[in-house]
Amino acid sequence: MGKGIFEKIVFLLNCLLEVIFQQPYFCIICGRELAYEEVYICDGCQDSFERVTDIVKIDGQDDIFLDECIALYEFKGNVRDIVHDLKYRGKKDLSNVIAYLINKNINLDADLITWVPQSKRTYRNRGYNQSEEIAKYLSYYTNIKCEELLIRVKETQSQVLLNGIDRWYNVWDAFSAERNLKGLKVLIVDDVVTTGATLNYCAKALKQKGAYVVNAICFAKSC
């Protein structure tokens, strides 16, 4: 028997054994073994997540270009920990978990999915854009095409330590869209929304290229 055929047989047998004797999966938060229908997070931990019940209100210092913004959870407790682990502790795989939860709970409708671009400094320090990672997984789950549509045309400060008004001035016209989007419905993905300033100016750039509707989806809403 040739070596190649033998290796294929071994591979198929291993796959069969994995199906028959499945390894247990554990909750990424509490470590409890997951029940058959649970994915990534056990029901007990998910019950601690506080759902956002209303559309996120964007009330800013300029015209509003974003048509609608939806956030899944309040930015507190385990939800905050998941975001911090993704952004600051290098746990990039959590972007898949976030995308799975968004897709499970919210019916998304768009022609294209895109994401909020980072500053060059942030990308260089982190090594990835968490919003881009979430967007690409959402594209996988929804079969909606995902494209890099936005670029950051000026470097900005981190929004984290800025107050509401300063957040708006900080990202004012900081983004540009790269191609013609005439008549398209675009969905912007971000991890957390606070004032909505960043998302609003991303929406402005997309509409300047002809986007008909621009909505946003975020994992969490920070007060």
Automatic annotation (TrEMBL):
Q: Where is the Phosphoribosyltransferase domain?
A: 165-220
* Superkingdom of this protein's organism: Bacteria
Q: Name one Pfam family in it.
A: Pribosyltran
Q: What is this protein called?
A: Competence protein ComFC
The record, for InterPro entries, names: ComF/GntX_DNA_util-trans, PRTase-like, PRTase_dom
| Family (UniProt) | Belongs to the ComF/GntX family.
